[in-house]
């Protein structure tokens, strides 16, 4: 293989790796698209690279965690749909090799106190991982907004890729579980008094010994069976109103 051929091969491989990643493009409220939210109501990372260092501040809301100009108005019971993308809207969302769970957390905007609203991982009936089901649903998955006291909140979408999670990032920097995280700014307008419970913090919730962080996706052992996988983090809050992975609308 000559130098030029090698350079083209390496460049192509690097592009494939980069373009395999994902982040949130925008949200839908009750089936109505709210527009491109990047740096408007989404605290968008400058790249779609994953977070692998569990101690990084980016574990909360990725690498660009600052307030952006807009807040999406919602009320308790509304259906809030996150729409992910890879390089451009309506592409293939995330590499098919990036198997793993999908989770959603919520926190008061002024507090690093996160409550889990939704999680899905491996579905034994369809034999598919949640990340792949989101890709099939054109990048869309939804939660029902809980009935909460009025105020501003952050919704933290998290997609996790396990294809290199057989080793810990802290032991080998080229390996480790990959997190794709986007935070959406919402304003709850409901007139109720329910508050979120005391939540968990990022970074800090996920550690090397947390179940779901190290996982041999291709391991031969009985313990590696995908239906035995448990997503990292706390249980879904009992006050959560549910969610689903399904397409609610078509992007343009």
UniProtKB/TrEMBL annotation:
Q: Name one GO molecular function term.
A: cellulase activity
Q: Which GO terms describe its cellular component?
A: extracellular region
> What does it catalyze?
[(1->4)-beta-D-glucosyl]n+m + reduced acceptor + O2 = 4-dehydro-beta-D-glucosyl-[(1->4)-beta-D-glucosyl]n-1 + [(1->4)-beta-D-glucosyl]m + acceptor + H2O
Q: Where is the Auxiliary Activity family 9 catalytic domain?
A: 21-219
Q: Mainly resides where?
A: secreted
- Which parts of this chain are annotated as the region Disordered? 232-252
Q: Enumerate the subcellular locations listed in this protein's record, separating them with semicolons.
A: Secreted
Any idea which UniProt keywords this protein has?
Answer: Carbohydrate metabolism, Cellulose degradation, Disulfide bond, Hydrolase, Polysaccharide degradation, Secreted, Signal
Which residues does UniProt assign to the signal peptide?
1-20
The EC number(s) attached to this protein equal 1.14.99.56
A biological process from GO: cellulose catabolic process
Keyword Hydrolase (UniProt): yes
Domain of life assignment: Eukaryota
Recorded hits in InterPro entries, A to Z, give:
AA9, AA9_LPMO
Query: What is the annotated role of this protein in its UniProt record?
Result: Lytic polysaccharide monooxygenase (LMPO) that depolymerizes crystalline and amorphous polysaccharides via the oxidation of scissile alpha- or beta-(1-4)-glycosidic bonds, yielding C1 and/or C4 oxidation products. Catalysis by LPMOs requires the reduction of the active-site copper from Cu(II) to Cu(I) by a reducing agent and H(2)O(2) or O(2) as a cosubstrate.
Identify its protein family: Belongs to the polysaccharide monooxygenase AA9 family.
Q: PANTHER family this protein is in?
A: ENDO-BETA-1,4-GLUCANASE D, PUTATIVE (AFU_ORTHOLOGUE AFUA_1G12560)-RELATED
Q: Please give the record's comment on domains.
A: Has a modular structure: an endo-beta-1,4-glucanase catalytic module at the N-terminus, a linker rich in serines and threonines, and a C-terminal carbohydrate-binding module (CBM).
The name on file for this protein is: AA9 family lytic polysaccharide monooxygenase
């Amino acid at each position: 293989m000559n130098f030029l051929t090698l350079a083209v091969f390496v460049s192509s491989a690097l592009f494939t790796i980069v373009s395999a990643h994902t982040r949130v493009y925008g949200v839908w409220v009750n089936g109505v698209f709210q527009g491109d939210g990047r740096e408007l109501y989404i605290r968008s990372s400058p790249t779609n690279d994953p977070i692998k260092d569990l101690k990084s501040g980016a574990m909360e809301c990725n690498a660009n965690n600052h307030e952006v100009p807009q807040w999406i108005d919602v009320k308790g019971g509304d259906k809030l749909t996150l729409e992910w993308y890879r390089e451009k809207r309506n592409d293939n969302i995330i590499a098919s090799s990036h198997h793993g769970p999908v989770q959603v957390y919520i926190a008061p905007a002024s507090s690093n106190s996160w409550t889990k609203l939704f999680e899905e991982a491996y579905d034994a009936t369809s034999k598919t991982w949640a990340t792949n089901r989101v890709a099939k649903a054109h990048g869309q998955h939804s939660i029902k907004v809980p009935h909460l006291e009025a105020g501003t909140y952050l919704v933290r979408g998290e997609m996790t890729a396990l294809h290199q999670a057989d080793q810990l990032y802290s032991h080998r920097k080229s390996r480790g579980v990959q997190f794709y995280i986007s935070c959406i700014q919402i304003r709850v307008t409901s007139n109720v008094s329910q508050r979120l419970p005391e939540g968990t913090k990022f970074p800090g919730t996920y550690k090397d010994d947390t179940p779901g962080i190290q996982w041999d996706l291709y391991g031969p052992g009985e313990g590696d069976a995908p239906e035995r996988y448990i997503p990292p983090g706390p249980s879904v809050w009992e006050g959560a109103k549910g969610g689903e992975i399904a397409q609610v609308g078509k992007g343009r």
